[in-house]
Structure formats: structure tokens, C-alpha cells
Amino acid sequence: MDRPRAHAAEIGQHRPVTLEDLTRKKDRRAQDRAALDALLDEVLVGTLSTVTQDGRPWVVPMLFARDGDRLLLHGSTGAGALRQVAAGAEAAFCAYAVDGLVLASSMFDHSANYRSAVVRGPLVTLTGDEAWAALDAVSDGLLPGRREEVRPMLAKEVAATVALALDLTDDNWILKVRTGGTGEDPADVPADVWTGVVPVQPAYGEPEPTPGQEALPVPASVERLRFGRGGIPDREDHRSR
User: Fold this and answer.
1) CA distance 37 to 168
2) What DSSP assignment string belongs to 69-108?
3) Structure pTM?
4) Where is the segment annotated Disordered (predicted)?
5) Cα separation of 83 and 77, whole Å?
6) What are the angstrom distances between the C-alpha of 143 and each of 87, 137, 181, 201?
7) Domain residue spans of the chain
8) pLDDT tens digits along 171-197
9) What CATH number has the domain spanning 23-230?
């Protein structure tokens, strides 16, 4: 066994790796729950990871929404790997946003301003009225107001969807944040090399109607999405639940 694998095995024999085991840039850990909520309310897609019954890693990108103290996810009941986490297997969910590219005087010192969160724990399968409410909350979180513009969900559609919840507790999440500039001493930066930060901002483009529907007005939910604060969707509907 090579040394990296042997070292990993030794760690596994002594104790499980926890969210406290940051090995680099520990000063970037943020303990602010409000900052965590802001990130989870802003981004639309995260990655859900687990280990399948055959011991192999599994990860998939998923749309999600925050509903108070829990994350809500959903998928098809026919998704085989998703059934693993629906049955209570330990999982980790990651969401992140890149806020800027940090350009230094050397490629080695280039970086990015970012916010990244990992939440770990078992997911709970929601059923009955809870499943209906969760799917409504996901809809409101991703595109507030859209539910009122379309027909209600059908019972068979809810039955074909697995609704999952991952609790946000005091100790099952970690948030890392990098802000600011290059951190270089200005005296060390060559006079002819531009350095600084290039902000990265999400934006929504011009809506593209389905062919034949060009004459229909753009719905209010889409207008709010496009022209909300900073081009970021207004997801206040579910933040405080």
C-alpha cells in the first residue's frame, strides 16, 4: 500500500474525519449562520455526495432550496443512487459561489474570492402533506411566484417524486469565505503588472419563449427574477420559515 493510502487508512482506524478537520486556511472559516443562509438562498444548485452500498463514491448536482433550518431536495423515485440517501445513508451537500477572480503579480498567488458551504448528515424522506409542502417550498425557493402562474401539482406527480430534507443544526455545517485583494505587499508588485479583483456576478438573460408563444407577456415571476436585487432571484419567501 502506498503511503497516501496507508495514511488515509490509519486516520480511518483512529477516528472519523469531521467538519473540524480543516487543513488549510483555517482562518477562512465563518461561524456566521446568517452568512450560511445567505449563500444557500442565493445559489440554485449544489452537489449531493454519499457512498453507495458497494463502497464507491457517488455525487450528483441537484437543485435545492432552504426552508428555515433545513435544506430541501427532490428527485425521481426511479433514481437508483438517490434511494441510498432516501433510506438514511450519511450524505454531504456542498454549495458554493465564486464572487471574484483575484489577480496577483504571479500565477502562483492568483486566487478567487468565494463562499463555500458543506452540510453533512442523514436526509429524511418526506411523505404525505410534508412532501407536498416541501415541493411547494422548493418551487418558491427557485422561482418565487411561479406556482401561482401554472396548474397545481397532480397527486401522481408528487408520488413519482422523492422529497428529501437535510437539517441544518449547530454543528453539521462548515462555511469558508475568502474576500479582499491579493494580500501582496505593494512594494513587491512590479509597476507594469496589473493586479486586483474582477468581480463575478450572476445574471439572467432575455427570456426565450416557447415557439408559438412569442405574443404572450413575460410572467411576473420571471420579471422579478430578472430585475431583482443585483440580478439575483428574490428568495425571501422561504428564508424565514
Assistant:
1) 10
2) SEEEEEEETT-HHHHHHHTT-EEEEEEEEEEEEEE-SSGG
3) 0.81
4) 200-220
5) 7
6) 29, 10, 33, 18
7) 23-230
8) 999 999 999 999 999 999 999 999 999
9) 2.30.110.10
